[in-house]
User: Fold these one by one.
Assistant:
Number 1:
Amino acid sequence: MGKLAITGGTPVQTSYPEELFHWPVVNDAMRRAQLEVLESGNMSGTDIAERFEAEYAKWQGRRYALSHNNGTSALTAAMYGLGVSAGDEVVCTTLTYWASCIGALQLGASVVFCDIDPETLQMSPESLESKITSRTKLVIVVHYMAYPADMDRIMAIARKHGLKVLEDVSHAHGGHYKGRMLGTFGDAAAMSLMSQKSLAVGEAGMLVTDDLEVYRRAIRYGHYDRISTLWKPEEYRGTKELPVGGVKNRMHQCAAAVGREQLRKYDREMREIDAAMKYFWAGLDDVGGLRIIYPQEACSDKAGWYASRCHYDPAAFGGVSSATFMKALNAEVGHFAFSNGCNFPLHLSTLFTDEDIYGYGAPTAHFFRKDGSNPGDVTGRLPVAEGIMPLLLGEPWFKHDDHRLINPYIEAVRKVAANFQELAGIDEGADAAVGGVALSHRRQGGKEASAL
Ligand SMILES: *Cc1c(COP(=O)(O)O)cnc(C)c1O
């Protein structure tokens, strides 16, 4: 029997501090707003959604915001809005949630993946540039795990090659890069407002842009009932206000009502999360082997700290895997607070290279490329992304800056780091690292599970 809980010792904590993790924080204004929509008999209208859009656009500092039923549909509509069409290529980082890019396949385009920067986990500008071909139309930049991507270099590359840029801000609402808000760099941005994201609304998404044409096209793609507000009758007459995307992207008004109230308190909540996470890391300053992933430039931040990870150096812990280290930490605190790994690299999925999705009798991605080549050939091996999973450890996502409640988590890390030798015998190796399709926060027995 060792000192660590996982080897039979006494855990640091035995009770679960629900209030430290519960998300979203629900207030009376949200409850009232829900009920009003429900009782109004207008759940499928757009009046409340339009108010939410106006407030969101103002908060985001962009001219237009268009509400969607989820982030996935907002991203696909943004691609259509930006003119992605048959035969085009979009370049996307391979480390992201699938919805950043799969929508391109619906538009007859193919996806080419690029590698990441090992320090920041963001799209590598060098790798991005190496993937650009004469068919490339769009760069999809994800501010992955709340960290701002290298927008100076990415925008310069995109402008140099005449490419459009779409930001996926699903992990970093309200974040900044060198003082400028994420979502204001690209030609458009889209974001999930799903209930486990930091700006948590429910099943909901938003598209923002300053470009009227992008906004108009996104409306025509999936908001049939609003076509006549922005398109002249002679522009759509023959089509009778039918959505060209064949999809219906309208946001539920209950979600819009919740969204309006969430937005009102989001800046304050972000500040509290930021203080809590920084307090946690300040308590681990002198622990070797774990290194915070945080932007170094002035006025860049990790707003919301969604799915935040740190660098884990197995060599500092006698080769013990991050998976085993994580299990030891969770045993100390009594719930699934620490996680490991990240989304699996998307380029390893044959969905993007071999699958005949629409029954053309050939792999969809080849069929969509004018020369019939395989996007997998361009994507190639992306060694940094492929090797990163065992080198990451996800820290708990504290929603309140309550030092008394956070201290046990600091203590747990210090204790496991000081006694890592006890883990050598139970280490299952790096293969136990998890990689999933989604960063989900499953609830296990009433306890938040920050898993992949
Ligand atoms: C969650 C997420 C999406 C998709 O949003 P939904 O609202 O779940 O459809 C897109 N991109 C990223 C990076 C995400 O994390």
Number 2:
Amino acid sequence: MDLSRLFKPKTQEPAEVRPDGNLRLPPGQYLTKKFPVLTYEATPTFDAEKYRFRVWGAVEQPFELTWDELQGLPRTDEIADFHCVTTWSRYDNHWEGVHVREIIARAKPLPGAQFVVAHSWTGYTTNMPYSDFNDDDVVIAFNHDDQPLEREHGGPVRLIVPKLYAYKSAKWLNGIEFLDQDHPGFWEVRGYHNHADPWKEERYW
Ligand SMILES: Nc1nc2c(c(=O)[nH]1)N[C@H]1C(S)=C(S)[C@@H](COP(=O)(O)O)O[C@H]1N2
Ligand SMILES: [Mo]
């Protein structure tokens, strides 16, 4: 009996490469088609009447928006991969919402505003350099894969920062603070990396 057929090596698909030369799947990550929920705090309730989106700190124009006003800002959408520090990645998420540059244009950050903290109404916070926040693919999302964002995934509004590990993508977003000094957020003070670049495996510090 000819067994060689059985032991033929399986042909492998070539690994996908991003335009910047990095592999599409960051090191140490595995792909999932599911959308796991990863939340530290209890999933909060939402009250559209009471909701305020606050923008403050090192800006010329601090401001506050009601839910309707936030909904009324120009919309954008994108397809982006999502990488959790606990090693799962989910490709091709379709996010719809408001680009953060709509907020930046209204707030007019001062020259010294080199850092940003995203705030959730649960008290969760996460920090990032202004240069990572002010990027083409950073959005305040209301919809995911053509559905209103599920409550446990941050609905009705969350931040999405695709190029950093997902703990930078604050769920239940209600504020953006601009700062001239870095201010590590919830996970960042508990040992997760301050910067969180998945392609550099910046997981812990
Ligand atoms: N408010 C809040 N936002 C959060 C978190 C959290 O615990 N609370 N977890 C972060 C982490 S670690 C990840 S991986 C993603 C998970 O988003 P998901 O639950 O929609 O998959 O949300 C991030 N945003
Ligand atoms: Mo995560």
Number 3:
Amino acid sequence: MAATPWLLLLCLILAAGGVLQARAQPDSKGFISVDCGLQGETGYTENTTKLSMAPDNGGFTDDAGTCHNISAEYVTPLMGKSWFNLRSFAAGTRNCYTLRSIVPGLKYLVRARFMYGNYDGLHRLPMFDLHIGVNFWRTVNISSPFAAKFVEVIVVVPDDYVQVCLINTGAGTPFISGLDLRPLKKTMYPQVTAAQGLVLLTRFNFGGDENTGIRYPDDPHDRMWFPWVNSSSWTEISTTRRVKYEADSPFEAPMAVMQTAIRPRNASHNIEFDWEPQPQANDPSPGYIIIMHFSELQLLPSNAVREFYINLNGKLLNRDVMRPPYLYGQASYNTFAIRKSYYIVSLNATANSTLPPIINALELFSVIPTTNLSTNSQDVSAILVIKAKYQVHKNWMGDPCGPGTVMVWDSLTCSYAIASPPRITRVDLSSRGLNGDISSSFANLKALQYLNLSNNNLVGSIPNVLSQLTSLTVLDLSRNQLNGSIPFGLLVRVQDGSLDLRYGNNSDICTNGNSCQLPTKQRSKLAIYIAIPAVLIVIIVAVVLFCFIRRKCQGSINNSVRPRNEMMTSYASGDDLYGDGSLRLESRQFTYEELKMITNNFERVLGRGGFGYVYDGFLEDGTQVAVKLRSHSSDQGDKEFLAEARILTQIHHKNLVTMIGYCKDGEYLALVYEYMSEGTLHDHIEACGRWWKSR
Ligand SMILES: *[C@@H]1O[C@H](CO)[C@@H](O)[C@H](O)[C@H]1NC(C)=O
Ligand SMILES: *[C@@H]1O[C@H](CO)[C@@H](O)[C@H](O)[C@H]1NC(C)=O
Ligand SMILES: *[C@@H]1O[C@H](CO)[C@@H](O)[C@H](O)[C@H]1NC(C)=O
Ligand SMILES: *[C@@H]1O[C@H](CO)[C@@H](O)[C@H](O)[C@H]1NC(C)=O
Ligand SMILES: *[C@@H]1O[C@H](CO)[C@@H](O)[C@H](O)[C@H]1NC(C)=O
Ligand SMILES: *[C@@H]1O[C@H](CO)[C@@H](O)[C@H](O)[C@H]1NC(C)=O
Ligand SMILES: *[C@@H]1O[C@H](CO)[C@@H](O)[C@H](O)[C@H]1NC(C)=O
Ligand SMILES: *[C@@H]1O[C@H](CO)[C@@H](O)[C@H](O)[C@H]1NC(C)=O
Ligand SMILES: *[C@@H]1O[C@H](CO)[C@@H](O)[C@H](O)[C@H]1NC(C)=O
Ligand SMILES: *[C@@H]1O[C@H](CO)[C@@H](O)[C@H](O)[C@H]1NC(C)=O
Ligand SMILES: *[C@@H]1O[C@H](CO)[C@@H](O)[C@H](O)[C@H]1NC(C)=O
């Protein structure tokens, strides 16, 4: 007999009654039942199970997709209300339902339901993929417009939410009619682990009423048990007595299922069923888990024996002889998935057996790996807050980072490691029309390296918490309406060269005299920050010493110390540079050609600062200089560049760094500082010392 009828099985009759408030939260049993495409605020109670069905507007899909009714010609009088409507997703590659408020680490049964019913009037049966979180679940092939299709998976859910995603693979518009989530006990289905899930192929109740399936409340976990009878080859056996499984048995088929069984019509025959492996897109030879439920339903006379072997493809599947216990459930199952090219299960009576074999129920699963990790949960929480705040909708569905780089959310970049969850490393929300202030949730993206919020309508001040992002190297806030001062923490990062901060073309950052001033307290902190490092103290002492010696030198010998260039004016106070937004640099102006000569065609890089590289150079008179050239790829405006220069010079100690001049030549912008490395100072002191000695 062929074991394909589950594909053709029609739906259980689910009829509808009363009206309930919408329920996006699990009910008291931990169940979530969604009637996809049901419009309005209110759900209803489903007639046979008395479970409350929630409409799927709002929370579940972020308003993605559109609601449809199936065509009238496919509505039958006994059809349950939940099949009348569905939600389809014509836009986007991936659209997801998010089921929330669940317990991380527990096992859940997730079931999706589909009935096409020519809802779109196109008579085009679609095929699409389902993902459970970031893992492939299965391909859904809608094979008939009136077939009600159930697709089920049992998985360990790692987070306090789980997403069911419909993937458009180019073979038709994905849709869904219903979605259920049911918690299972930890002890159930031990084959399900954090790394492996079970996809249901079929769950049969042998000998049950041909017209009804069994589910909640008969099955407290609301598994669906489909009837399978075949009167031409099997005889049904049933009892009205209680049939139970031991407490905490891993499979626990419900009593209503265990109360019926079949035996071969011809008592000298065996029970046999078969199926063919169903290759999946990512697994051509899926592994199977077979769970069989047995219970003796007849009180056997003392001289009668019912015992049988369980064979797969003619070989023992289970070495133990099965003797079903009277009115108790017993399961036979494999722990590790079996992979064969065909499957024939036969229950063969032993030689001693006086009675033919029986079977009460069968569950057949294929295994899927669930090893792909979802994005770091703190990153997910933060990006969801950001998504909600700025109403970013485009493509932001499912897991932000995966699976794979194809599914990554538009505007994000992630990093992947083998054993740890992906992290969000880059966020580029430039030119997205963002309104409001800068969300402090950006500071919760702890692995963020690049944040571009330029060219939006952001207002308010720059949050200081951003300086907690230790990996952040680029922060572009230019072209917004931000105001206030730049937080101290960020200034420090800019100063030490670890952060490229851009904030040009904002309404009121550092251009307005008052808002631009660093508070006095911060200044003194800044001074401490600068003064404390021992190396700097040594340098200061050395400079003082050097200046003292230099004065002595100057008086005595002509060539040992360079004369100061008249065009150079020491850059005394940063506050004057940019006080009213205009340039007040009275230093020497260099052309780009001159800079090229000074730096020997930008030969030696001293380091990389906030806005570009810093090059080593020598003026005509031999003064060693540091040339900070605005990076060519930078889109930083002149004002920003000079404001940044102002910050840099403010932070640098006046005695240590002297600004010699600047370059503003076409697109080129550069600042030229006197450069005194320890070595140079040492050399000078050495030179003077030699002179003293030679006197
Ligand atoms: C019932 O059993 C007969 C004989 O084994 C088989 O030919 C037939 O296909 C079965 N029917 C169903 C619906 O499985
Ligand atoms: C469902 O219940 C309602 C009210 O209890 C009743 O009117 C309706 O006929 C029932 N539907 C079915 C299919 O039993
Ligand atoms: C579906 O049918 C219901 C009535 O049964 C109606 O209220 C609703 O507007 C219909 N929805 C669509 C999308 O046509
Ligand atoms: C999908 O179902 C249709 C109709 O049953 C069938 O013809 C087709 O081969 C199936 N496609 C795949 C890839 O299984
Ligand atoms: C039962 O099967 C055996 C062997 O296949 C056969 O010889 C016998 O006639 C069958 N009995 C009936 C009642 O069909
Ligand atoms: C079990 O019975 C089937 C026929 O029902 C037979 O083909 C098979 O060889 C038997 N297996 C064993 C191990 O006896
Ligand atoms: C059949 O019964 C005999 C006698 O009770 C016993 O010795 C033998 O082991 C049994 N065989 C099997 C396969 O159970
Ligand atoms: C895991 O993600 C990769 C893409 O990176 C994908 O190809 C693969 O199918 C996924 N694995 C599962 C089990 O879904
Ligand atoms: C930020 O985005 C804008 C617009 O896409 C782009 O021009 C600019 O170069 C980006 N900033 C950085 C630092 O990459
Ligand atoms: C910045 O702008 C907001 C309005 O956008 C205003 O409420 C706030 O007072 C301004 N802050 C400063 C320091 O100007
Ligand atoms: C700033 O605005 C001015 C005038 O609108 C424009 O010319 C300049 O390119 C802008 N700078 C940046 C960095 O966007």
Number 4:
Amino acid sequence: MTISPLSRKNVQALTPYQSARRLGGKGDIWLNANEYPTSPNFDLLHRTFNRYPEPQPEAVINGYANYAGVKPENVIVTRGGDESIELIIRAFCEPDDHVLHCPPTYGMYSVSAETCGIALKTVPLTADFQLNLAEIERNLDRVKVVFVCSPNNPTGTLVNRVDLLKLLDITRNKAIVVVDEAYIEFCPQASLVNELANYPHLAIIRTLSKAFALAGLRCGFTLANAELIGILQKVIAPYPLPVPVSDIAAQALQPQGITQMQERVNDVLNNRAWLIEQLSKIPTVVQIFETEANYVLVKFQDSEKIFKTLWEQGIILRDQHKALGLQNCIRITIGTRNELEQTVKAIKLV
Ligand SMILES: *Cc1c(COP(=O)(O)O)cnc(C)c1O
């Protein structure tokens, strides 16, 4: 007797998201999950652990609204940006609707769609990692949610702003356009937040996991017009954020926390420039892709050899060899200068 056949067919068929942690590895240098390499330090200020938390903690909502330049009514806080992805699918997709994504891109859009039993349409990015708008337009039938990631994970590239606005125009009254801005702190000028007033069907995903250095907190946001936020409020869990999480998130969003985040960003950008400079001198490096985020996608002559050799030395990178169009590519998170020095040294010796 086995109960597996009792689970939903789509769950039986599901390949779970291959998160960096699930893939494992042993070592001291973790450059595979786009985390910040060191932890900020916070003390808990609230100790009412016996009480349920506020459903949408005011200090967190106001802090993020203030930081993002929107009104509190334009913000919903979730358990990481990942929960926002699933929330939007659950709120908007009927069983026979479709979700559209543009690989190579973040894997959670397809995993969340499959988990919800929603069919997925795939319109690959062009060779220079831009939207194929003509093909997207031809495939919009029954599509309720379009996911676009900018800066895109794992390529690091920005999607052209004019293309995003065209996408918003061709989907008006038809579909929600989700622009995933998980890495926007590394290129804040590229945000679409100022377009919210023009597009009721635009939803922007944000997170504290990357530039805010709080991946362990599990705290993310969706920014949208009040009507869209209200719909997500209807389907979100009653108490999504644990008391310690909102406590620390509220502190991280104070002016001092924002300043520290910006200092971190400057650090990452300096180290990224250094890494790219070093990699460009290594003969086994075929191509270094343009990046606006805290990671860089690199094409090698033989990426599997590089990946495996460094893995065995405890330098854990993110293999992209099997991602659409990314043969022989590895994604390297910008770690500390010391971690990057060791990584460069190890690559040179392969
Ligand atoms: C990291 C990431 C997220 C969100 O991560 P959370 O830790 O769940 O907030 C969302 N989208 C992309 C593209 C990411 O890389």
